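W.,

You were right to be curious about this one. When I first looked at the sequence I had no strong expectations either way, so I just let the prediction run and decided to look at it fresh. Below is the sequence, 436 residues in total, followed by the output.
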Amino acid sequence: MKLFDEIPALDDGYLKIGKIEEKDAAVLEEMSANDNVRKFLPTFLFEYRFADKHEAVKEMYGSIFQRKESLILGIFLNGEEGRMAGVCEIYNYDPHWNKASIGCRLNEEFWNRKIASHVIMLLKDYLFEKTDVKRITVHVMTDNIYSCRAVEKCGFRLRKSNAEEDWGFEKPVRVNKYVLEKLGNIKYCRIGNGPKPMVMLPGLALKSTLGSADIIEENYAMFADYSIYLFDDRDNIGDGYTIRERAGDIAAEMKTLHLKHAYVFGASMGGMVGQYLAIDHPDLVDRLVISATSPCMNELSRKVVTEWRDLAIEGNVAELVSRSIRRIYSENTIRQWGTALEQGIGYVSPEELSKFIKLSDAILRFDCRDELDRIRCRTLVMGSEGDRVLGVMGAREIAARTGGRLYVYGPEYGHGFYDEAPDHRQRILDFFDRAE
């Protein structure tokens, strides 16, 4: 079912969400006249267009609903059905990209009753389970601390904080932008609107790469002809999870999104996933770029990854972060950015540590050397002489076995040359854009 095929009636036992009736116009009038409510909301809300809120109610399910512009619903507490608590809204619906935005505004007398969290969860479950929507966004004024907490509690990811937006006030307001995506077993985000599909496969990390989507969008702005799909790891990683399974997860989501003949870039562990993606799902990969990776573990990489895993098992996050940064990056980068890189990790949850441990084990078991000759797509392999995690011999072996192109940086860059080398992204783009 598509959004706007119905006016839903939702109930979670604590509250109901449903159609607004003319008897509820008085509450709309109260909310519109309350400066404490209005200061957290855009000035151009639908009901603000009408001096007579009865007229607003009549029009809510008329033209704006028929044009699929907005679906406005009332919020009613069970046991207090005689009075509407507030309004929620689904808007910015895009059926092509299966996305929509949601918002919630409550009358002041109903604040601090955990209503927003219930409303968000009801809307989220309805959109994901009953409609074609797979991506939900929420914009909340930064000063609206309790609403921000409610959104975060419901699992939304903070995509950008303190962004300026025009809400119709004298000055732009600061907002937090949140997003939640549902697609099979794993979450993803899409960057750009180009006609060519590009899939980006991240390396081993303590934090989800989706949290860096804004940085990636800025750094890969030159990829204007591409839509970049960034996939997260599966939430329910079990013991014994493998790199091949990770590639299978990505392939399943690519098929759901109808992504074929994609331009795939993987770094470090992402390069390992990329190898199996090309081996097992050749119809999905047109070109493959893999950086700072290997077809298997060697003595150096086994020692390094084992050390990282053991520190994670101990729960020694500070030492894990410090040692990994000093292994991944060059001395020059560490001198300039080492402290900022360490501080940028922030709090690491037990769930994130558990996932890191299981992915580390998957890396330690990884070995696709016997199947490298099954990679038939055009391939570019990049490595660095200064890589102190995987070394560079694995990159040379992959290029030799697949007939792919090889580019090796000198010792001035570390394992993280995909972040350090100023020409790395341009090399990817040149290879993807090459005619042959």
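Here's what jumped out at me. The mean pLDDT is 93. And, maybe more interesting for your project: The chain has 16 helices and 15 strands.

Coffee later to discuss?

I.
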